[in-house]
Amino acid sequence: MICPACDHDNIAGVDQCDNCGTDLAGLDVPLTGFVEDDPVLNRPVGDLPLKDALVLPLEATVADALALMRERREGCVFVQDGERRLIGVLTERDVCTRVAARGRDPKKTTVERVMTPGPLKLFPDDPLAWALHRMGVEGHRHLPVIDDGKLTGFLSVRGVLQAFLDA
Question: Within 10 A of 137 (CB to CB), how many other CB atoms are there?
Fold first, then answer.
């Protein structure tokens, strides 16, 4: 299976790229019910109004992340390392299940300890149908869009709904 992020040729059925760590689980699941000439579903993700990504470094605390998410009214923050590579995402669900439910102090817990590592990535040329498929298969509500190796924004479920309403 060829990794969509780095083009590494992985063994068929592997869940994670051996080269870059990109999540490959479910990539071989066929799209069903796809109408090939649907102008909305074929629209490239890069043509949609993407949201600006909230970004924090690994060392940021969960309290920092929550304050930023509350201020900007978003459900996630993306985590980058010192080289500005996307390495994780911290969602509201992560905070509930990995911080609050375990009694961790958000002011002392870093996002690195509780984030979801290696988030699934979209690219500007990916069709909306592919993004919807990935959201459905993986259960994600926010997917980062990477262009030239850089985080350019993200697609949310709300953004997908808006694309259909605008069509």
Answer: 14
Strand partners, 78: 55, 89
The DSSP output letter for 4 is T
79, 117 contact by CB (below 8 A)? no
In the numeric block, which tokens belong to residue 81?
């390392």
Q: Shortest CA distance to 144 belongs to which of 65, 79, 66?
A: 79
Instruction: Give the global pTM.
Output: 0.75
pLDDT tens for 37-76 read 777 788 899 998 899 999 999 999 999 999 999 999 999 9
Does residue 118 contact residue 22 with C-beta atoms inside 8 Å?
yes
Location of structure tokens 């629209």: 43
- Residue 91: exposure state from Cβ atoms within 10 A (0-12, 13-18, ≥19): buried
Alpha carbons within 13 A on the beta-carbon side of 22: 23
Q: What is the DSSP letter of 87?
A: E
Kindly list the distances between the CA atom of residue 6 and the CA atoms of 22, 88, 97, 166, in Å, as whole numbers in the listed order.
9, 17, 31, 33
The whole-angstrom separation of Cα 124 and Cα 44 is 6
* Strand ranges inside 28-75, DSSP E: 55-57
